[in-house]
Amino acid sequence: MNRVSLGAGSLGLRRLGWIAAGLLISGVVLAADRQASDEARETVDGLLGQVEQRLAVAPDVAMAKWNSGAPINAPEREAQILERVVVEAQQQGVDQQLARAFFQDQFDASKAVQQQLHQQWQQASQPPFDNPPDLASDVRPQLDTLTPQLIQSLHEYQSLEDEPAALQYFEDNAARAVADHEYAEALEMALSSLREE
Ligand SMILES: O=C(O)C(=O)C[C@]1(C(=O)O)C=C[C@@H](O)C=C1
Secretion signal: which residues (predicted)? Predict the structure, then answer.
């Protein structure tokens, strides 16, 4: 009697073990299979695209400043942008600390590209460019157009924080964008506060 019930007990335990293992495996498979929603992908693609678009303006800034001799670092302009960023972030319910850190990253990334280009031009004894873009009338307005778009994208991005698949999609695509980029270190800088989220 004892032996029979012992046997049944150990069989039950073993069966439980198999069931637990089965559940664990299917859980892992399901989690790996879960994909970011179309909406989440759109948000991430949009945000990454806009960050790249903003960084793509940096060579024009560099050219304008190469000709004019204006310093790369323009703290008063950064302060002016941040002032607007804080107001718009507040209106849209974007975390202000994130918005500030994110825009500071964009400035730092732009300065890194500008410094790299100025260094190259210095070494190549580059003369002033013919028809350089004008900082005030051509270049800064492009950046100003992107500012509210970026804040809107930050707002959408923030809503993804409880979607691990979306954050993974962001990570994968951010890493790919950096690896493929001409100014990889600068793009990495531009994305750093988002990747620390
Ligand atoms: O507007 C400029 O002068 C720029 O260099 C562009 C920019 C920016 O990314 O917005 C970058 C660095 C400056 O310190 C200020 C602003």
Answer: none
Cβ(155) to ligand 1 under 6 A?
no
| Most informative mutation of 57, 61, 76, 139 for ligand 1 (most atoms within 8 A of CB) | 61
> What residue segments make up the domains of the chain, in order of their start?
1-33, 39-195
CA atoms within 13 A on the CB side of 174: 22
String of DSSP letters for 31-48: HHH----HHHHHHHHHHH
Per-block average pLDDT, block size 10, for the chain (197 residues)? 50 76 67 81 98 98 98 98 97 96 98 98 98 97 98 96 95 97 98 86
Model confidence, pTM: 0.85
Q: Which CATH number is associated with domain 39-195?
A: 1.20.59.10
